[in-house]
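Take one record.
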Amino acid sequence: MTAKPVAVVVGGGISGALSAKALADRGFHVRLFEKYPHPSTVFSPTDISYNISLGPRGQDALRKLGVSKIKKGVFTKYIARHVKQSVKVLQRARPDLSVASHNLAFSILRNAEDAGVEMNFEHTLKDVDFDNKVAEFSKIYNESMKVKYDLLVAADGSKSTVRQKLVEDSSIELKVHVVEDAMEYQCVILPHWRDIICHQVLYTTKLKSVPPETVHTWADKASNFLCLSSPFGDKTLMTMICPVGTLDGLKKKENFGLFLSILLEDVTEQARAEISRQLARGTPSTGSTCVWPSSIGFPAHQVLLMGDAAHGMFSSLGQSCNAALESVLCLANATDACEESVGTKKYIEQIVSIYVDLRKDDAIAAVDLTYNGFGGTNNRIIVHGS
């Protein structure tokens, strides 16, 4: 290779955009393809979406990859655990960064654009010729386009099309095991947590001055509530996690009040009534998965899997984004390690090989940890495996 190597990144989410930036910073001509419109046409900066909690690992990865300040993030320094009219406040060793998912995506996309990444939104992957290193994309009302690549990065989610194409290719040995989460998620927006928690509870537990940078949690063996300080003014984003079918069952029986009074004992009646109202009119989301591929990179074909395509995780523990950011950092480190091979035929193969060595074992361990985490394996449904 004498010209800049071409990297095609499939998927414009957080891991795809960050991979694109990392490769562009290291001398690649990067072409990113995303099937959905640019987030700026879907969300406004003031919209509220689900929050991502970036721990020290995720924050360190962003810093090392040169991502500038994340807009509208809130550092959470404490965790308040509410159990049966008692509250225990724990201080984090290092604060987490709570940020709306679309704001994090905005920030990383801006960084990728500044790095010179070519953005192609509303392009759907149709096929990949792994032997000739050609990816084919289609856009609504347009003819399909074929794009040659030197490196193909599959960052297209837990139901990755690239990964499925690899499985279907008889010349490539890849097996994938997928387990679907049997938990459902629904968010409500409330006034600040100070107006939600019963003052009597705070008084009796001597928590008159709980710091505002606090994540509040309520949990039992089956369900979980997370109460996060929202980065949008004096509001609280509360997320409920429970087994699939729980919310529909409560709607039919119209007994949200009893359920919430047991789980959220120290929350005011007025707040519980508002939570019930929003849960009753809303629709829960489902569908997160754990993914175990037999490999996350294919040096001979110059393809690698990134983010949820490589190590999908249940949303219950919220570690998927942190793991994805760490994987991109491994890709950057692998590329840096091959600097002396730039321009040679083995350059891309070496990058993919080192990436696999750096990341595969940790990625599998992370998925295993999430699978055995909150909710337990009894609440998981096997979708398919091979």
Observations:
- Confidence is low (pLDDT under 50) at residues 374-386.
